[in-house]
Structures are given as C-alpha cells and as structure tokens.
Write a structure and sequence with these properties.
The complex is a heterodimer of chains A (75) and B (702). Chain A is mainly beta and 75 residues long. Chain A has 2 helices and 6 strands, in the order ββαβββαβ. Classes of the chains: A mainly beta (75), B alpha/beta (702). Chains A and B meet through helix 1 and strand 5 of A and helix 3, helix 10, helix 11, helix 15 and strand 12 of B.
C-alpha cells in the first residue's frame, strides 16, 4: 500500500497518481482533483474527518474514506 | 424600431458573485418563480441593455459542472439542453471569479461546446492587483474563442461594458474551445453524431451520460440513448477522460495568459481558517454564533411582533365596527384578518433568521461549520450540510426542509428532512410561552437564572435531542444505499454584500409567506367556519342559554360570553372535540383542549387563539393576560382541581414538543420527497411519540 491523501500530515503535499474510476466520483475530478496535480493537506477537522485540501488551485473538503482511495506520491 | 427581448442565462460556480451580478443587472425588477414541474426557485428579472434591447435574465443555480450532482443543478442541464423549452436562452453569460479562473473555466468550456452564444465574465477584477494576478486578456479571448468582460459586481464596475457586449451577441464566436470529445475516440463520437443526427457531438453525449436527469426525451432519443448503453464502463471512462482533457486545455491556455505572483498572496484565509476550524475555538465560536442568532430572534423580533399583533387586532375591530354585520363581516373579522395576522406575525423572526443565514453563507463561514460538524453529524446518519436545515428549523421547518437540497446523499438528506420538524420552531413559542407562564413559577434559581427561561431553554434542547435521537434510529432502520459523496468547496472569506443579503432576505421571506401563508390562511377560514356553524342546538344557542335557570341576573356582557361558549360547544368543531375526548383523556386534556389540538393541527400557534375563543375571552393570541387568567381559573369538574396544573401543563408542553402539528411542513415533505410515504411516517411517528410521552408524563405527575 502506497500513500494516499488520507495519510498526509497537515502541511504535507503529494502528487495524485492515476486512480480507479469506480471509486472516485466524476464531481471530484470536475472540482480539479486530477491525476498529476499537487495536493496539499491544509487542515484536518477536529474529529480527524473530513480533510481540508488544496488541489489544483481549489480549496476543498472531502471525507476521509474518499481521501484514503486517492493514491499519491509524497513530495 | 421595436424593443427586442433577448433571453440571457447566468451560469457559473457558486461563490463567483453570480448573484451579485444578477442583482446588479435586475435590481428590484427581479422575481422568483418556479420551473415547470419542479420546485426549484427560478430567479429572473428584466434588464435594459440599450434603447432597443431588453434582456430577460435568469439566474441559474450555481454549479461546478453541467453534469449535475444535486436537484438544483439539474436545472442548468435541462435549461441549456432543451432548445424548444420556454427558458432556453438566446445567450449564456458564464460568471467566473478571477482567483479561481481555472476551475471556473471548466463549465465555460462545457457550455461553449453546446454552441449557444456564450460570454465569459470575470468578476472581482478589481482585486487582481492585490492578489498578484496578471492576465493577458487578448490572448485569453483568442484562446477561448470568446469575448471576455472584466467586472466587479460589488463595485458596479464593468456593467456598461457587459451590456455593450451583450448587444452584439449575434456576432459572437460560437466555436467550441477545443474538440475534446473527438480526441477521446473519434469513431465512437462520430457514430453518436450520426445516430442522433445532431450537428454537435456534445449535446447527444450529455443526453447519453445524464439521461436520468432529463425529462423531455423523445421516444427516439431514448432508443438512441439505450443503443449506446449509458451504464457501460466505457462511457464512464470517457467522461473522466473528457474532464481530464478539458483541464489540460485550460491549463495550457492559462499558462499563456494568466499569472499569479504567489508572494503577494495574503494569508488572511489561512489565519482565519486556523481559528474558525480549531478543535476548541471552532466549536466555541460556532456555539457563540448560534446563541447570538437565537437571542436575536427573540430580542429583536419581539417589538415588531407586538406591533403586528396589535395592528391586526385593531384591523379586526375596525372591520367589525365599520362593516355591516353579517356572515361576510364575521368571515373577514374572525376568519380572514386573524388568519393573515397569524402568518404576518412570523415575518420578523423569519426575516432575522434568514438575515443571519445569508450573512453566514456570504462570508464563507457556513462551509467551515459544515467542515467542523460533518463527522459528528455523520454518526447520526446526517451530513455536515444538515446543520443549515437544523439551524433554520428554529425559525420554521418549511424553509429548513428546502435548505436540505444541497445534501447530495439521499439517505442523509431524507433523515435530515424527517427530523427537522423536531427543532423548536417559532410557531411553538406562543404555546410554550403561555403554558410556562401558567405552570412554572416565576422565580430565580441560584440567584441568576429565571426558572421560566430555563424551562424554555430545556425545551429547545429537548427539540434538538429528539431530532438527534430519531436520526440515530432512522439511520439504523432505513436501508438505503449510502454511497458517500461529499465534496465541498471551502470558499475564500468575504465581507457580506449588503445588497445580496437584502435581496436574499426579502426573497426568502416572501417565498415563506406566499407558500406557508396560503395553507394557514385557508385553514383558518375552514376553522372559523367549523367553529361558527353547527346543528340545531347551535342555531338556537341564545334562547337555550337564556332559559337556563342559573343564567338569570347575569349582566349583558357575561351573558354574551355564555352564549358564545355554548355556541362553541355545539358547533361542528365542538362535536369534533367531544368525539376525541376519550382519546386525549389519558394525557389529561378535556374536549376544549381537544378543539385547540385539532385546530392547531394546521399550525401550532393556533392553539392559543383557539383556547382563547373557546374560553370566550377576547384575546388576540399574544395578549396572554386575560387568556392566561381564564386558563388558570379553569377547573376540572372530575377532580375539582385546576385544569392546567403541573401534570397536564407539562403533558401539553411535551405534546407540542414532539407532535407533528403542521400541515405546511407535511406538504413540503411530500413535495421534496416526491412520496406520501415519508410525510405519513413523520405524522404517525411524531404523533405516536407525542401521545405516549404526554400520557406517561401526565400519569407520573398526577
């Protein structure tokens, strides 16, 4: 198992790898979360979920279960 | 030359200032209507473009993509695809925001593919320098094959340029930004074009991928769609590829024409985020905001509410004394005017609540609350987004349920809709106020807290607790596929625009009055009829009362009250009350309270007015002095004790806390869930709970 957005620490960044189409909804891509793009973890909600990320210029909040399915290469 | 009308649709991401632009263009000439067949609000208005051209502007719901995620977003798709539809625009204005241009251009590129004349408006252009952004407009125009106008909707700058550009819309370039689909699989997409015999590929492609959201498909179109097997892996893969290609192209273009000097970016956003989403301060601030809202709803609203109350009481009296006596006058003075008053009285509270919600949304704070609360709410089967309906529910469940639309997970949305009516809405307040005044002593606890106030606070918490516990239960019971789909934008912080907040409050308040008002008004007329008509004994009331022995020697006024009271007992509604008396006796109520219960089924606040009528006291609902005394003096003939003692009073308070006494809410739940199943479940579940709790309370306390 490699790294995912869910395994980032606050302030860390990574590059999104290709992801499975079944697990990731189209709307996440449309919001700018695309393979090859840099993603940075800005903040984690107090109960460890959801995650507040900056990706491809967009500031988004996504739930941990989805974040765990997006593989990245840590920077 | 004749004045021509051109239909303009405003499209864009949320938080781009699309609504500011709409307000700027249409001002007070805007209206809210409904899209045919669905209940999404349609905001439209007129705008003068030039001496010879008027624009009919529609503000379409904010969306990140033409592929819809929520009910509101399907409107954008349907409006832009249905070229024979009533709302089909002559031209589209895509509103983008200078800071998020990249993401905003996605939907621009999608709409360009539809070959409708499209203009790009870049908002907040005045902030470019401050944010270190530089843009080569000419390159951008050439690359996007489109005209671009820079504006600042808040500062009203650039609007004249926009109008000039719109005037010229027939000369706009309608070519797509790039041929995205053919790059994916040329053979496949040219086949689509042939089968649908369409000029563009994008339109039939949308029909195939989004067919579940489109209501106007012809039989032939449906057949063609089925031919391409919309559920297949291939279609899904191509949709992803399409998005990737679009972003690739957008990135290429922006590399040439758009630069951000990162050193100039301020970190205000990061600083505010650190505080507002902090694990302790975040919640402290949120609770503080909630307390401020609740406090304002009661403090600020009480003065205008008293004024409205007095005004309608006076109107009623005026109607009675100035119109010729008769059934018609009674209908106006006792049915219509109090009925309208019963709606109007909630305007201050609702307007204040909408004011706060509009401000919280405008500033970007609401997204932080959603972020903070999501995990907690999910334990109860809801979403962070459920916070907005639950808070709004303290004013009125009807707009609150409508606010649940942006929850895209159906199970989370359904649970939110089902539990919202437990929150203590403003209609419960008059009932709580009079009962608390009757049964809770007005004394201080520990020197500072007022016992009556504490009781009211406890009822608020009880409402939230009931909402949360029923959500937990529903979460366990409901078997619905629960695929989590939670992606929210965390917009940048902004100062709220006075104009936007003002229009939002006016519009929402108006929608509430027209929507809920109709039902409350209609029911108060029905109630008035049932209470002022009856069989033989009702018609002969005066003679019967006069011939009763113990009534001799009464003054004229006392006699009239007796007659009114006798009439009520023998009216249709009186019979109804007596019929249900055996059922409500275990909760400690008699037939008179029963009448008030039936009457208040339309709307809870009717309870006080109905009791007032029943005890034949001149009362206008809020004036609890006389009605309160009368209720305090009411004796239960069976026990010789007070009718409203601690036991029956508590039982009534809890009954109103839990019971689904609101037809307007049931109607909106039916509308939003498109089924009778859920409102009926809500009605039976909540009524059963109220009945059981009230019965147990009464039995234990008495």
């Amino acid at each position: 198992m490699g790294d995912t957005i869910g395994s980032l620490q606050i302030g860390e960044s990574g590059i999104i790898e290709d992801f499975s189409l079944d697990l990731i909804p189209l709307c996440l891509l449309e919001m700018g979360c695309l393979p090859g793009k840099e993603v940075r973890l800005i903040q984690i909600a107090p109960l460890k979920d959801p995650l507040y990320i900056k990706v491809n210029g967009s500031h988004l909040a996504i739930r941990k279960e989805m974040a765990n399915q997006i593989n990245i290469t840590k920077l | 030359m004749k004045n021509n009308v051109v239909k303009v649709a405003l499209v864009g991401n949320p938080n781009t200032g699309k609504t500011s632009l709409f307000n700027e263009l249409t001002g007070l000439k805007q209206k809210v209507g409904n899209y045919p067949g669905i209940t999404v609000d349609k905001k439209h208005g007129k705008c003068k473009i030039s001496e010879t051209l008027t624009a009919e502007v529609v503000d379409l719901p904010g969306t990140y993509s033409i592929n819809p995620q929520t009910l509101d977003e399907t409107i954008v798709l349907e409006t832009l695809l249905n070229s024979s539809g009533e709302s089909y625009p002559d031209l589209v204005v895509v509103v983008a925001e200078v800071e998020n241009l990249k993401r905003n251009l996605l939907i621009f590129s999608q709409i360009k593919d539809l070959k409708i004349p499209t203009l790009l408006v870049v908002n907040m252009a005045d902030q470019m320098e401050r944010k270190g952004i530089s843009m080569d407009l000419e390159v951008l125009k050439a690359e996007l094959k489109s005209e671009i106008v820079l504006i600042s909707a808040r500062k009203s700058s650039g609007i004249e340029n926009l109008k000039k550009e719109i005037e010229n819309y027939k000369n706009w370039n309608t070519e797509p930004v790039s041929n995205f689909l053919d790059k994916i699989d040329p053979d496949f997409f040219s086949e689509i074009k042939t089968v649908f015999s369409e000029e563009s590929t994008y339109k039939p492609w949308l029909l195939i991928t989004q067919q579940q959201y489109i209501h106007f498909l012809s039989e032939e179109q449906q057949k063609n769609i089925a031919f391409f097997n919309p559920a297949s892996e291939k279609i899904k893969k191509y949709q992803h590829k399409e998005t990737v290609f679009r972003y690739q192209k957008i990135n290429e273009i922006l590399k040439k024409a758009y630069k951000v000097d990162a050193s100039k970016a301020t970190d205000l956003r990061a600083k505010l985020d650190r505080v507002l989403t902090h694990k302790i301060f975040g919640y402290v601030i949120f609770v503080g905001v909630l307390l401020l809202i609740f406090n304002s709803i009661f403090e600020w609203a009480s003065v205008p509410m008293d004024l409205i109350d007095g005004l309608f009481a006076n109107l009623s009296d005026m109607a009675k004394s100035n119109l010729p006596p008769g059934v018609f006058t009674n209908l106006i003075a006792e049915g219509l005017i109090p009925g309208i008053g019963g709606v109007v009285i909630f305007i201050p509270q609702i307007a204040i609540l909408f004011l706060f919600i509009a401000i919280l949304e405008e500033t970007g704070y609401m997204s932080r609350v959603v972020f903070l609360m999501d995990k907690i709410m999910r334990r109860f089967g809801m979403s962070g987004k459920s916070i907005i309906p639950l808070v709004s529910g303290t004013a009125c469940a009807i707009p609150a349920i409508m606010a649940s639309r942006n929850i895209n997970n159906w199970k989370e949305r359904l649970i939110t809709i089902l539990v919202v009516p437990f929150t203590t809405c403003s209609a419960r307040l008059p009932v709580y106020a009079i009962l608390i005044a009757l049964i809770i002593p007005n004394q201080r606890v520990m020197g500072i807290f007022n016992l009556q106030g504490l009781t009211l606070l406890a009822l608020y918490f009880l409402g939230f607790a009931a909402a949360i516990s029923s959500a937990i239960l529903l979460n366990k019971v409901l078997k619905i596929d629960n695929r989590s789909l939670f992606v929210i934008e965390m917009p940048n912080y902004k100062l709220p625009s006075f104009k936007n907040v003002f229009y939002e409050v006016v519009e929402k308040t108006k929608a509430f009055i027209l929507g809920a008002g109709k039902i409350i008004l209609a029911l108060s007329i029905v109630l008035w009829f049932l209470a002022s008509n009856g069989p033989e004994t009702f018609k002969n009331a005066e003679q019967i009362v006069l011939t009763q022995q113990d009534n001799t020697g009464l003054s004229e006024g006392e006699l009239q009250k007796k007659v009114a009271s006798y009439k009520l007992q023998n009216s249709y509604i009186g019979y109804m009350g007596k019929t249900i008396e055996p059922v409500i006796a275990p909760m400690g109520y008699d037939w008179k309270i029963g009448i008030a219960l039936i009457s208040s089924f339309a709307a809870r606040e009717v309870f006080v007015g109905a009791l007032a009528t029943i005890y034949s006291v001149e009362s206008d609902g809020e004036d609890t002095g006389t009605i309160k005394q009368r209720m305090a003096a009411e004796i239960n003939p069976a026990t010789g004790e007070k009718r409203f003692n601690f036991a029956s009073g508590m039982s009534l308070l809890l009954f109103y806390a839990f019971a689904m006494q609101c037809i307007g809410t049931l109607a909106i739940v039916k509308r939003e869930t498109k089924s009778w199943k859920w409102p009926i479940l809500q009605l039976t579940g909540m009524s059963a709970l109220a009945y059981i709790v009230a019965t147990i309370t009464f039995t234990i306390l008495s």
